[in-house]
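Design review, sub-item: ligand-bound model
Attendees: FS, YL, KQ
YL presented the inputs for the NDP complex:
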Amino acid sequence: MSYVDDVLAKVIENNPSEPEFHQAVTEVLETIRPLIEENEELYKKEAILERLTVPERMIKFRVPWVDDKGQVQVNTGIRVQFNSAIGPYKGGLRFHPSVNQSIIKFLGFEQIFKNSLTGLPIGGGKGGADFDPKGKSDREVMAFCQSFMTELYKHIGADRDVPAGDIGVGAREIGYMFGQYKRLTGNYEGVLTGKGLSYGGSLARTEATGYGVIYLSAELFQSHGMELAGKTVCVSGSGNVAIYAIEKAQELGAKVVTCSDSNGWVYDPEGIDVAALKEIKEVQRARLTEYKKYRPNSEYHEGRGVWQIKCDLACPCATQNEVFIEDAKQLVANGCTALVEGANMPTTLDATKYLQENGVFFVPGKASNAGGVAVSALEMSQNSERLSWTFEDVDERLQTIMVNIYHNMDDAAKRYGKEGDYVAGANLAGFEKVLNAMLAQGVC
Ligand code: NDP
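KQ shared the predicted structure:
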């Protein structure tokens, strides 16, 4: 049995009931196989893959808090510190009832490669709790966040582990947790990212993920002798990633003709009106049915359907598993050039395979949505310097980072005989740097 197969079998045996974690490890190990096989004896002796797939540390803890009725509630908190070979652990905290060990380990494992791809010194981690902030009062959310941090603060720090937000953890939760960390340690330091601008947050963090998706797409087009300007783009979603992807694509001269929410989707043949979309989603927090009031010539449809519109670039920016095999077939039939993921895992495995086999450039979210974590790392730099950079400065660095991600991924794919396979390229490029650092640091 090859070393990769041996470790895959062990991961499945040693981590029972963790299907999401098995899936993530299988995808990565399968794609880095050519690199491992180049020097299998050495990596086996050094137990590189065993060390890569066992987290350095995992903390699981009780989070007791009192609800508004005076009832004590108990949730489970988790922080997985997966790999610190290239920098302090970095990755979001997710507060959602679905959170469990398998999901946090899957996300923490993926984060190792995404963070490495940014070229910035950040290791991989992830955390969260099975707590649902929806429907809770501000006081209840504060009580939960303070209790969560009362345990977590022992394990994190500006040079050790720097959590950020994720699903269910926005500016409010980050603020409460930052306040509690400061109170417990007496230190005012950049221990969390995604902070408010008044206490150490970074300009351009809001825009970073969406802008990053488009910066990378523009580079992809240019590298294949095409221009993004003048192209038609379909975007799904109308949240943070979607809005800023649409904004940047239009700024660069493309026409974005769709967006969606969990109820339905909009087709605007003249190009989405970003100001109207921001007003509906960021200010009114309303449904997309409102869009027609601003743009009478647009169409609103219930359900899903974004991918049936003809486009050159498809950017799924809503949620996981939203591009299925029949969508992939439609995109190919319509002559789509590239699908660049904004969301995490929006494309199903068979859809990905179909797109790749039918000549559509496919860029996985691990590479294309890394702009968010990249600007979080820039927030850490600003906190360490005790300075705040201008919007233009952060944006320019973001652009350089996304261009580099594209070329590193493209180059790695070519070097391992997988030209144009950006899933393999992203994993190989992300892993190479971590591997070199692990080998240099000895057995640890
Ligand atoms: P938001 O919550 O701001 O927006 C999500 C959008 O997707 C909303 O418009 C939502 O509609 C829509 N949506 C949710 N479920 C469905 C569905 N089943 N069908 C159609 N539309 C749906 O999230 P973000 O924009 O921040 O994140 C989007 C994705 O990008 C997620 O996968 C996230 O993990 C990923 N990501 C985000 C980063 C960031 O910096 N924000 C960084 C890296 C990845 P509705 O309004 O109806 O709920």
